[in-house]
Amino acid sequence: MDRLKKLNIPKSLWILGTIIIILIILSLLSDFLVPYDPYETCPEHVLQPPSSHHLLGTDAHGRDILSRIIVGSKTSIFSAFALIALAAGIGTTVGLLGGYFGGKVDTVLMRVTDVFLAFPDMVLAIAVAGILGGGLVNAMIAILATTWTQYARLARSSTIAIKEETFIQAAKLSGCSNMRIMLRHILPNIGGPLIVTATLHVSGMMMGIAGLSFLGLGVKVPQAEWGSMISEGKKFLQTSPWVALAPSIVMVLVIMVFNLFGDKLRDILDPKSAEK
Amino acid sequence: MKKITSVLLVLVLAMAVVLTGCGDKGGDDAKSDKAQVIKVGGTSAVIASMDPAVDWNGWYTVRVGVAENLFKLDENLEPTPWLAEGYEMVDDTTYKITLKEGVTFSNGEAMTPEKVIASLKRVGEMNVRAVALKDAEYSVDGNAVVIKTAEPYTILINDLCDPFAAIIDVDNTKDLVGNPIGTGPFVMSEFEPSVKAVMVKNEKYWGGEVKADKVEYNNIADFDTVALAVRNGELDIALDMSPEAADSIADVKEFDVTRTVQPRTYQMYFNMNTMKDKAVRQAIMYGIDKKTIGDVQLKGSVTPANSAFLENSAYSGKDLKSNDYDEVKAKELLKSAGYEDKNGDGIVEKDGKALKIKLSLYKRLAMESIATEMQAQLKKIGIDVEVATFEKATFFEPGDFDIGLYSIVTTPTGDPLPFLRGCMSEKGEANYGKYHNAEVEKALKELAVTFDKDTRVKLVNKIQQIAIDDAAFDYIGFNNMCTGISKDVIGYTTTPNDYYQVNKDLSKH
Taking all residues of chain A, what is their mean pLDDT, rounded to a whole number? Predict the structure, then answer.
């Protein structure tokens, strides 16, 4: 706690952090919070405008849009978290190994990374998702394939910068194993920029999953997911705009919260930008 | 010297530009007084090949007015002569078809019996649905073609109405995919597979003066874009629109939306290899509320049905005993077959295994909407449905489905035999569900050789009833085709069978 105080965390970060925690709790409890069954169709009430019964209206199958957005938040937020955990895990490991050992190991690992980096993110993701077929898991694999490289690059450059520091030399001299040095001495010292990248990435991941779902490569019908809801709603944009607008607005707001949080976090954790 | 040359060169070039500019302008002015270009767009307006003999491509070749058949179906789906003058049945297996005098292909060649035979023979070899044309023997008798079928075949004239039998000049066509030479009022001028087809007026059309100069068919990715194109005035005709797209252009004054009842149904295939339990199949049939899907969900754009054939046709299934929507009965059936929800998750299980079904469909008309509704309805009776969406109907052949949704015109030539034979006969080209019933097989054989109409109706009903009792097929309902037509356009035809569109009288005010 003392350490936290020393960092002098601004109020805005606390507020944003609280909002994010509330969002996470809400999405965890989403199944109990929904006013209607998000999957029950009701042909008599299709495309109803927002009213006191349906706060955000109903979609083309008479399903309550608010309920679908709430349930969809779980898919969006948690798949984004899971993706980042995986991408950061894989990327950091690759970067650490390459940066620490250097030489042939580094060359091989970095050339593999280069291959993945050579493709534009979304294009590669669409290709992978197209080959694997639809479904949330496949969409996540597709996005993962394009994301881990950033962590690998970042971890590698940070590792190289830190590897010649005297405390690492000291650890080596006192007979620490390579594993121990990497995990106990290097990783904590390169963690800052990685965490910042991860936080700023949350919104990107949510966009990625929603984007694939929008194209029909993400979740399968009828699963509620923001991207697929927008995709379904776009054909009613002229006649019943709320079907596409409601999930879009929610998505913009949530992504904004995560981005602002990441920005603020960077101010604290990333000394370089703090100097500016 | 160099300088003078370059100055001269520039002058010449400038002159050329000015002159050609003038020429173009003059030409345009002269043309725009008369030039009639009709623009047609739709989500499946252009196919990969214009060769009429391949698969269902003939529909597109005939639609755009490039090729014509010996016979044409009238509004009651009865064959009437088109390129033929008439026909005569010499005996049970021999048809003598007299050709119209003076019919020419768009390259100026006369349509001779020899050319007709070459065209028909080719179809027989290339199209599985044209099996009767393959096994037949052909001969020439003056200006008539004599076709002798291998065995008595009642619907040869109907088959000749099928666009696959469109007559083309096989010997003189160099590019069958992009430019088949037919007898129609239009000639292909530009073809980009699955993207764009441009046809220009056939100056030598045998049927008289062709009014329009040019017809363009464009594929447009989705229904919303079609509606937007209509709004922007980019289209004169918008082909099969979704009900939502049709609604969204309701306020466009320059457009009328016509709705045509089609014999195009949403057919449900049960995969007999993966869904062996008949009770489950029956429960699904009882569990689907077609009325809600058609009348409420799709706002009447699909007319619910239990039979493969239209209510107002001779072969309608009015007297069939069908498995109509009955949720209670569906649940009972599942229960008596040993399926019960023991863990309370709303999905029934048998031997600890939850009842999960894969519903495969492809992006055509309202299929995705129907599937979502079916999924919700079947969940109510305790069946967990996974929907798999494909771009094209490619999942049928490898059997990648428990239930497959197919959009098909059941009486493309006015007769039920080709459809029934295709999906129900063991060797049928569309028997994707691997259905087999000896009695059906026998009745189909009988149907092919029976000429008496009443007996045919009885046979068709018998076949349909057996298929229902076996719980092998079901039908959600018939599509009501929505076509947006500009008020400026005259002469465009919309027919239930959906393959007569462009004709010589098509024009603009």
Answer: 88
User: Going by C-beta distance under 8 Å and a sequence separation of 6 or more, which residues neighbour residue A37?
Assistant: A67
Reported as type and span, the H/E element at residue A179 is: helix A178-180
Kindly report the three-state secondary structure assignment for every residue of B415-481.
Answer: CCHHHHHHHHCCCCCCCCCCCCCHHHHHHHHHHHHCCCHHHHHHHHHHHHHHHHHCCCEEEEEEEEE
**Residue A276, number of CB atoms within 10 A of its CB:** 6
Question: How far is B403 from B387, CA to CA, in rounded Å?
Answer: 10
Angle at the Cα of B166 from the Cα atoms of B204 and B170, rounded to 5 degrees: 75
A43 touching chain B per CB within 8 A: yes
Contacts of B136 (CB under 8 A, 6+ apart): B124, B147, B148, B149, B150, B156
Cβ atoms B399, B411 nearer than 8 A: no
Task: List residues of B whose CB lies inside 8 A of any A CB.
Answer: 222-224, 227, 242, 244-245, 247-248, 292-293, 296-297, 368-369, 371-373, 375-377, 379, 386-389
Q: How far apart are CA A124 and CA A122, in angstroms?
A: 5
How many Cβ atoms from other residues are within 10 Å of residue A197's Cβ? 20
Asked whether this complex has an ipTM greater than 0.85, the answer is no
Residues B348 and B5: their CA atoms lie apart, in Å, by 90
Q: How many pairs of residues across A and B have Cβ atoms under 8 Å apart?
A: 54
How does pLDDT run across A239-262, given as a tens digit for each residue? 789 999 999 999 999 999 999 998
Collect all residues of chain B within an 8 Å Cβ-Cβ radius of residue A220.
386-389
Interchain contact, A61 vs B224, CB within 8 Å: no
* pTM over cut 0.80: no
The three-point CA angle A75-A78-A84 to 5° equals: 130
Mean pLDDT of chain B: 89
d(CA A194, CA B214): 62
Residue A222 to residue A239: CA distance in whole angstroms:
22
- Three-class SS state of B403: strand
B485 CB-contact burial (10 Å; exposed 0-12 / middle 13-18 / buried 19+): buried
Both tokens of residue B482? 């929505």
Q: Which run of H or E residues covers position A228?
A: helix A226-233
Nearest-CA neighbor of B418 among B460, B386, B376, B363? B460
| CB–CB contact B244 A235 (8 Å) | yes
**Which amino acid is it at A108?**
V
